[in-house]
């Protein structure tokens, strides 16, 4: 499925200008049909899966309790 720049911006929660810049830099693959750029939606699946995996990993790290330090001595 191909998306326009506007649809891609909505899909990625980014601005249209940002998406256009990524296309011009070659960071997003797109084809130009003479009127507009068309972006293949499936090229983002790997990136989105990696971001979800990273987000899950960060949440797990942040939810771990802080271990008590055995070197701290109570001065009371």
From TrEMBL:
<dbReference type="GO" id="GO:0003677">
    <property type="term" value="F:DNA binding"/>
</dbReference>
<dbReference type="InterPro" id="IPR041657">
    <property type="entry name" value="HTH_17"/>
</dbReference>
<protein>
    <submittedName>
        <fullName>Helix-turn-helix domain-containing protein</fullName>
    </submittedName>
</protein>
<feature type="domain" description="Helix-turn-helix">
    <location>
        <begin position="2"/>
        <end position="50"/>
    </location>
</feature>
<dbReference type="Pfam" id="PF12728">
    <property type="entry name" value="HTH_17"/>
</dbReference>
<dbReference type="InterPro" id="IPR010093">
    <property type="entry name" value="SinI_DNA-bd"/>
</dbReference>
